[in-house]
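In full, the data.
>
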Amino acid sequence: MGEIPARADVVIVGGGFTGLWTAHYLLLADPALDVVVLEAEHVGFGASGRNGGWVSALWPVGPRTLARRGGAQAARAMVAELQNTVDEVGRATESAAIDCGFRKGGAIALARSPAQAARARAEVDEAREWGLGTRWLDASEASERLAASRVVGATFTPHCARVHPRRLVDGLAATVRSQGAQVHEGVRVQAIGPGHVVLEGGEQVSAPHVIRATEAWTPLLPGERRTVAPVYSLMVATEPLSEEQWSRIGLAEREVFSDHRHVIIYGQRTVDDRLAFGGRGAPYHFGSRIKPEFDHEATVFADLRATLTDLLPQLGDVEFTHAWGGPLGIARDWHPSVGHDPSTGLGWAGGYVGDGVAATNLAGRTLADLVTGRSTALTQLPWVGHRSRKWEPEPARWAGINAGLRLAHAADREEARTGHPARLAALLGAVTGH
């Protein structure tokens, strides 16, 4: 690992996608920079190494919200850059020879009830207005891509790719090391301040620029307890499937998939031909606690396996061989942000709400411009400098987040029973603020 230096030009706290992409683009901009990345565990330990592998232009807040906050022109610029970012991840991984299975096959979100179809069509209408590229598929077109049960239609966007996230983060770490960055693993940062970070043993590393790239672990830092809420998402994976099995399932273009229920689910066909499938549903833990045992919720894993086999009954008795999980970061207004204060040298990025595989790349490019003092199209995007309000203190935070989760499940049950959009949906929106 080498000795941790006492000084650097840029210190980045966090060795996930945000930190590594930032180091990569900083060194592309100025190879002479002394860049140090400090990671408490190992690179990609957090969401970067455990996610569903969607490199998507999806965004937790829609363009209408962006337009209210920054104007229509800024919202359109954000949409365009998010779409470009999907391709930029492909270009960057190809240039660095990172074998992560990047395949831009798009994303299909199934509508499996009239209520889901109503939401899906409203999404298509908004997409048409803002140039998102999302279109409606009828039941036949949707089933041709993914032969799921009870399909009445789907939305499809081309602006999404699949990757193997662990391979991507490992390859990116190797790339930034080859560029000259120092990446130190197993180094815990206790505090971040202007011009320095304080390590667990009390030692300090000084730098004119300090970047916080800690996502779900941000609440562990002093003064950041209510900046984001760490919310868990869990995943399961099947054994590798045969070509005959895949011929009955679909995903021939390696599309990633989900549906339009309220409780988020997501899946992909992996590079070794498994189905990897995940979703929300694990509880938020009081005080924004993060513990290894929270990665494993047997009831959630069972629900994910049941949900996937209901979605794809042709799986039959396929064996599920893997299960894992971890926390992601959610800002109070569901709005990701990136920023840098030139007066203090402090920068940050995060609050991706699970849509970070592509957004982290955009954050890294943006932070590289901000740190090097360049005014570019990226530094003018509406998420730059955005400050979300703080989460409520406990116990309100615990009660509100878990109430939102229960309401989402209840809304899905209501729609399954009635076939109509859930009356609980409005209450769900009020509770979650989304």
In short: The radius of gyration is 21 Å. Residues 72-95 form the longest helix (24 residues). Residues 274 and 312 are 13 Å apart (CA to CA).
